[in-house]
Amino acid sequence: MTGKAWAGQRADVELRLFACLAICAIGLLFWLYGSGQDLSSLFWTNRDFANYWIASKLALEGRVLDLFSGQDIYFARMQEVFGQDYPWHNWSYPPHYLLLVLPFGLLPYVASGIVFQLATLALFLHAASLARAPEARGYWLLLLPFIVCNLHLSQNGFLTAALMLYGLSLRFRRPILAGVAIGLLTIKPQLGLLLPILLLLERRWQTIAAATVSATLAIAVSALLFGVDAWTGYVAHNLPYQTIVMTDFGGFFLHLMPSLYGAARSLDLDAATAMMLHLPVAGPTFGAFLYLAWRLKTPEARSLSLLFATFCIAPYSLLYDLGALCVLAAAENARERMLPQGQGRRWRMLMLAAVCLLPVLALPFSLAGLPIAPAVLLLGWAAAVTPLPERNAVNGAPRRG
């Protein structure tokens, strides 16, 4: 067996072990949560997954318009199920998101949450395997912070990260499948705001067409199943309310936002001032993204640059949205470790590792009054795109430009 084949087999074994450990960790986590806990208590139900479960149940019961008729109506339905003392939650997703979570309303709440996390974690691990560096060790360990973050918040970060990774990793090899994934990513449009530009610059016409068709079909099917009124209600009620949440609300969620806008809001600055600070950074960031999309030579480098730019430009994103970025940053860190010692190498490795740690470190730092996420993202981006002469001839590593 050649060294390269042995390295690839070792990476496959490492992935399987990592997947087993992750699944065991989920089982242990839910067992600890359930031990001595009333499964209907706020300890269980005050999770973001409660939104998906309630939404899928309302859709299955033919009451889907309760999701798109205003916050008061939606939250009243949550209180009917979880009690009058249930803390504030809101529904912010477009109607075609229901197509992805509809079956989960058929199960009891806790079982549904476990199945959702396991299924989307498996999807995420498969998508992440497409970006792995087979010769590197410890690649998967840098993904644990994101996995812990998403499990703790019980969010859809595994799902959206998988869709982004499929779109980026398959756009040259399987352009139609990549386009389908990108089309479905419109459930969270702020995550894919730069994807059309990258695809246009790369002239990925098949992927663009597939993304357009899949997004259009998803919207059309949701309108057919749930009614056009679901979409008009989403535009009339949910989008304006989400704007109010972003500009007027305070509290814990502000510390989960990695953007400069989020950092400013977490320091109690008003929305207008926060945006005035954010825009002078977002503008040059967009210019840097365009320049790098043209200059960088490999798809992997352009993909990583796109993800960094996305989270620096978009004012509203959250730590559990960082999954795809963590995967590509971990892959770049792994490639970095395969290189011989060179000037600046340690700094690059540390910054890429710091990006992977953001899902668990950004929150406590922000709560302490030190929102580090914007600086880590910018420095990590600079580290990722800085050219290294050694890359050209080491282990067949691709030239970065």
From TrEMBL:
Membrane topology: Multi-pass membrane protein
Pfam families, sorted: GT87
GO cellular component: plasma membrane
Gene Ontology MF, one: hexosyltransferase activity
Transmembrane residue ranges: 15-34, 97-127, 139-164, 176-201, 208-228, 240-263, 275-294, 306-330, 350-383
InterPro entries: GT87
Keywords: Cell membrane, Membrane, Transferase, Transmembrane, Transmembrane helix
Coiled coil found in the keyword field: no
Signal peptide bounds: none
Chief localization: membrane
Location within or outside the cell: Cell membrane
Family note: Belongs to the glycosyltransferase 87 family.
Protein name: DUF2029 domain-containing protein
Organism: Pseudorhizobium banfieldiae
Lineage: Bacteria, Pseudomonadati, Pseudomonadota, Alphaproteobacteria, Hyphomicrobiales
